[in-house]
Amino acid sequence: MRLPDGLAPWAVRASLSRGRLHAEPGGGARSPFQRDRDRIIHATAFRRLQYKTQVFVYHEGDHFRTRLTHSLEVAQIARSIARELALDEDLAEALALAHDLGHPPFGHGGEDALDAMMKPYGGFDHNAQSLKAVTLLETRYAGFDGLNLTWETLEGLAKHNGPLRRATGYIAEYDRLHSLDLTTHASAEAQVAALADDIAYNNHDLDDGIRAGMFTLEDASALSLVRDAHDAARQDKPGMPADRATGETIRRVINLMVNDVVAESRRRIERLGPHSADDIRAADRPVIAFSDAMMEANNELRAFLFQRMYRHWRVNRTTQKCKRALQVLFTLLHGEPRQLPPWWQAKAGEPGGAAAAAAVCDYLAGMTDRYALEEHRRLTDPTIPG
Which one of 33, 225, 318, 323 is CB 3.0 to 4.6 Å from 297, fit for a cystine? Predict the structure, then answer.
């Protein structure tokens, strides 16, 4: 069911946005969510994603995904699903583009390293760091810190993975300033962005794993989902080269997943019978989801990738080296924050304390892979000028 504006009754509407923390004049021809998307794209944190690890560190090859290309793929899938479900595509796209802004260098290894170093101070979580980036750390505007995004975009960033009944850290801190209704589900648009993330990273990691020689398409075809897509590709295009078979297969896997999400979400929405976006938020479970069969197939694919790719000795070796580099940087800068650039020194205060830990963590989390490696060399090699 679509209303005259082309959206479903339960879609978030830009005209009904709860606004921004800091009031601003209207955006002319752009809706509030289009303005959010544009601010995210122009953010420094977004540009840095170009040189942040997805699985492979940037210097391991030009064709592997980075956090930036991953985010673009998530946005494309999110728009496709939102369009099919008559949701606000701009909000779904903005959330997809922003969801990884808080990831540190070196992928999940970098996150593990910062989490370990920050344990005495509450730990580290990339979702909270994404919210912090867009509400505090970006400094592009004269009137406020952050990007001053709409409530709906901030809500989606904070709880796109589900309600936060015991929020901690920066999310809890920000919620006290600007309540995001953390105990309810996020909008359908935010849920779309979360599922699009799953679809994108599982499929592009499958593609990158084959490209890296960690396994073959035939190996992956032991999985029912991949096998069905591979068989369909070979029937449509018999005799095609192996590299094209991979692309044709993965394209079909993505299509199967997207179609499944759309069909299952329609079933759930029909059962719920919502009349507004708030009805989606108040539901007892997400409305955007895989079917049980596709969830099982997706989990099977994820287990395959963990075994054959994420725990591959080459990935493990690089991950451990990069984790050590980040831990060394944290220890050196936390113990002597006068080595930080002036703006970060002012935030850090005295050596060894909680304020210094938070400042060093934010500084390191914002780095690209290559900048972090270069900073490690500058601070540990006495032959390199500071």
Answer: 225
